[in-house]
Design a protein that fits this description.
The chain is α/β, with parallel strands linked by helices. It contains ten helices and 14 strands. The chain has a six-stranded mixed β-sheet, sandwiched between helices. Strands 4-11-1-13 form a four-stranded antiparallel β-sheet. Strand 2 and strand 3 form a beta hairpin.
């Protein structure tokens, strides 16, 4: 592992102290002080050859990183062998409720597939009673740990829910699982792995908020996208009293995507005909798929579609392999403005197999103040 940051920060700290107390500055000291105030940008990335095989053994000298088209000096570099911290999100709502044991076995297989030193947190959904009403909530079942026995117990304690607080769970990943700054060996090496269909029904948060927060945290996102649409639509039609219902939030989300529609006239599920119910269902699944693609692409992650939960085990193995091929580089931006602007990142390869492809974080929002 090529970690230069602790020594660099120590030297920069001395430069800052001398600047504060008015000592005589040598040439270059002012630049050193400025760097202490500049955000270190972490960029997780993977490299694959033209036939899809991960390219290993790369060094910092094989890379050029650009921000908004301008080359940056790489200050730090981590190889693929360094550990990751992973938030494992298990969607146990809707059609998956009858397959809880299948989900638990697949999740355990995923944890077992990770490398020694990788740390995992478990997040899942549950239903709780509030004033006599059943409410779906997202819960952190286990904090980050590399204790495999503890994680096995946590997975066995996963419950089911009668709703999908998916967006809320994404915020929990940022606010609770990855609340504290990472230890040095995990800096720039944090990931979300979600087993879900991505169709939110009960969250207080919305997608734009979750996307912004995940991007700010620099979390790589992987999705095992379960196709639950057929099951959902089988119980969606007919008598509105016995059918699976859309939530008000889902109906509003659909109509917000259709220009010229009056949302207030269509929030009652029983006021929807079968044709409109199917149209809403199709749109909600399309929205969910687009959102997962958007998060994965922006962070340098990937979406793994599966037809049903019987394929989840193989998909989890692919995710574990993907995490094991991630590099991380870091740089201090030459653009030192704290203006909140979005900065685009691009990595160029030198000395890698011809035709190799880089999948990395696409950019970040500069801090304000």
């Amino acid at each position: 592992m090529h970690r230069k940051r602790p020594l660099l920060l120590l030297l920069l700290s001395f430069g800052l102290i001398f600047g504060v107390y008015g000592q005589d500055k040598k040439p270059g000291d002012e630049d050193e002080v400025i760097k202490v105030k500049t955000q270190l940008v972490d960029v997780p990335f993977a490299v694959v050859s033209p036939n899809g095989v991960p390219v290993r053994g790369l060094k910092a000298s094989n890379l050029i990183v650009y921000e908004d088209g301008k080359p940056q000096e790489i200050a730090d570099f981590s190889t693929t062998s360094e550990p990751f911290e992973v938030a494992l999100l298990l969607d146990t709502s809707g059609s998956t409720r009858s397959d809880l044991q299948l989900i638990q076995r697949a999740a355990q297989f995923f944890v077992d597939s990770l490398r020694p030193g990788d740390r995992v947190s478990i997040i899942a959904f549950n239903s709780v009673k509030n004033d006599g009403q059943s409410t779906a909530v997202s819960e952190v079942i286990s904090p980050l740990t590399d204790d495999r026995r503890f994680l096995r117990t946590a997975i066995a304690n996963v419950k089911t829910s009668n709703g999908t607080p998916y967006y809320d769970s994404l915020l929990q990943v940022v606010d609770r699982v990855f609340r504290d700054p990472p230890r040095e060996e995990f800096r720039g090496r944090r990931a979300l792995v979600a087993l879900t269909d991505g169709v939110d029904s009960t969250s207080a948060a919305d997608f734009s908020e979750a996307k912004e927060r995940l991007g700010q945290a620099g979390i790589v996102t992987f999705f095992i996208q379960v196709d639950t649409r057929e099951f959902f639509e089988e119980t969606l039609l007919g008598d509105c009293q016995t059918a699976i219902r859309f939530s008000t939030a889902q109906i509003r989300r659909y109509y917000r995507s259709i220009k010229g529609k009056n949302v207030e006239k269509a929030v009652d599920f029983c006021g929807l005909g079968d044709f409109e119910r199917l149209a809403i269902s199709k749109k909600l699944y399309d929205i969910a798929g687009n959102e997962m693609d958007e998060l994965a692409k922006a962070s340098g992650g990937k979406v793994f579609p599966v037809a049903d939960l019987t394929e989840a085990r193989d998909a989890f193995k692919s995710v574990a392999d993907e995490i094991g091929t991630k590099y991380t580089l870091a740089y201090y931006p030459t653009n030192e403005k704290h203006d909140g602007s979005y900065r685009r990142i691009r990595i160029e390869l030198k000395g890698a197999p011809a035709g190799s492809v880089v999948r990395s974080r696409e950019g970040y929002a500069a801090p304000l103040n």
